[in-house]
Amino acid sequence: MSSVGGLLEPLPAPLPRDRGDASPPMICSQVFDSISIHANGDIVCWCVDVNGQRVYGNVFKDRIADVWHGPAYREIRDWLLRSRPDSWCPAIDRHCPLRVVPAAADYNGSAPRIRILKLEPVTYCNLQCPVCPVETGFKQVPELRETRGQKLLPLNVMLDVVAQLPDLELIEYFDYGEPFIHRDTVAFLREVRRTRPGCRIVTNTNGTVMTPEQIRAIAAESLLDRIVFSIDGATAESYRKYRIGGSFSKAFGKMKALADACRAAGTHCKYSPGRRGSVQITWQYILFEWNDSDEELALARELAQSIEVPIEWVITSGYGASKRFLHGSAEAMRLMDPPDFFIHMAANADIDVRLKERGIDNIYTKDVVDTDMTDRGEGAVARGPERDRDQDAAREAFAESDVPAPDALHRTRSAIGEWIVGIRRSTRPWRRAMKNGNRAVGRGAEKQELGNREYRNSR
Ligand code: SF4
Q1: How far is the CA of 277 from the centre of ligand 1 (A)?
Q2: How far, in Å, from the CA of 2 to the mean position of ligand 1?
Q3: Rounded Cα–Cα distance for residues 219 and 184 (Å)
Q4: For a substitution probing ligand 1, which of 1, 35, 38, 48 has the most ligand atoms within 8 Å of its CB?
Q5: With a 6 A CB cut-off, is 79 part of the ligand 1 pocket?
Q6: How far apart are CA 301 and CA 283, in angstroms?
Q7: Which among 223, 284, 376, 409 could disulfide-bond with 218, CB atoms 3.0 to 4.6 Å apart, if both were Cys?
């Protein structure tokens, strides 16, 4: 951690430029127009600082403007502008995939405005995904358990944060942890909608803890512009290999329920960015070795199509990553078909390729426990007593909440599961999908660019 006794250590000298190097400075946009607030109130640059390595202030005791215009933020901006173009950043003492923006020659970053807020409402989660920092870091590393484990931002603090940011255009209401565990999620979204009608709000969820009341409110009042459901698989078996403790039928059922409710309320929107007053729902599907068969992808497409939700395939690396779908491959291009329904997000692969070229491990898993990735998956299941303790703490947090506790959720069987099994038995959609897929290979590059642009525009 680059903080001693609550004070930030000074940054090292900017990296010297090579003689004659007149290329523009390489910066991230984050410390120039965005702010990220952890569930413990810490202000950090962005989600790349998973563990709170460089904390600029804390919303429980500091005013954001003082921190944003204060010496520590000025120091990092100045460092980025003066250092040679490189992806290394002293804020996290490693390469950062976000330090990729060439600054205009005359840019000095002297009057930055905060346009984007990443707000992490909780670091509780009801699932135990093997390489998620919540599972591998916040629960396992004693120091992180203290600072990052099971934290929650109260409603009044979250609203005060928004009130302090007059130039806000976008709120990302998630980081690590499951946002719908926060019992005041709807109250927060509703108040932001009332006070900041021009501000877009997006979130990301595992879907499994959303309540019928939350679903009804989001649909009827259009409380989110975009909501991404992380559902990695189209069958119960493959889904639970990564989403440990979750249930495919529950996650998909909640996504369907929201899509249905939005259609009934006239707020459903299929594509991102959607029209104002609509809710765009996306199924995000990380491609792993165990969920990337033609049959399973075709089934996912069929299910997505049946509820009019686009899929965002994620090509990733590291733990369990698909060996079929590699960034830029013809196989990956096939994911773009049929074009109406699928978005190809290659950002993770881009990051990984860039880091690998420099011999660097995936940034999201570097600072957590140094054990083999495979062990983590098994560890998440095997750590019975520790998980029980975590769940006890979670239960306390849930005590006054309308949201049922996670263990109860795990036991509940949804009727939607039976419905999906029925669809699997009665449909054989993959022959048709495969035929379309082969045709799409030739058009893949163009579609990939369109998909990536759409993804960027939606952010
Ligand atoms: S780690 Fe550095 S380059 Fe990356 S977002 Fe933070 S300040 Fe910007």
Answers
A1: 33
A2: 14
A3: 17
A4: 48
A5: no
A6: 10
A7: 223
pTM: 0.77
Match 């909640």 to its residue by tokens. Answer: 254
Chain center to CA of 414:
26
pLDDT by residue (tens digit) across 103-120?
887 777 787 899 999 999
Q: What is the per-residue DSSP string for 7-74?
A: EEPPPPPPPPPPTT--PPPEE-SHHHHEEEE-TTSEEESSTT-TT-SS--EETTTS-HHHHHTSHHHH
Residue ID of nearest Cα to ligand 1 atom 4: 96
The neighbouring-strand residues paired with 172 are 118, 202
Does the CA dihedral 85-31-205-454 come out positive or negative? negative
Strand partners, 322: none
pLDDT < 50: residue spans in the chain: 1, 4-5, 346-349, 351, 355, 360-459
Average pLDDT, the chain: 78
Q: Which atom of ligand 1 is nearest to the CA of 92?
A: 1
CA of 31 to the centre of ligand 1 (A): 7
Tell me the two tokens of residue 36: 């990220």
The bridge status of strand 3-4 relative to strand 7-8 is antiparallel
Cα 30 to averaged position of ligand 1 atoms, centre (Å): 7
Expressed in angstroms and rounded, the spacing between residue 89 Cα and the centre of ligand 1 is 6
Q: What residue's CA is closest to ligand 1, atom 8?
A: 28
pLDDT at 328: 66
Ligand 1 pocket check for 35: Cβ under 6 Å: no
Cα 15 to middle of ligand 1, angstroms? 15
Ligand 1 and 96: CB distance under 6 A: yes
Please say whether the beta carbons of 145 and 151 come within 8 A: no
Closest by Cα among 336, 305, 314, 346 to 456: 346
Tokens of 79: 């460092």
Residue 236: exposed, middle, or buried by beta-carbon count in 10 A (0-12, 13-18, 19+)?
Answer: middle
In sequence order, what are the beta bridge partners of 8? 3
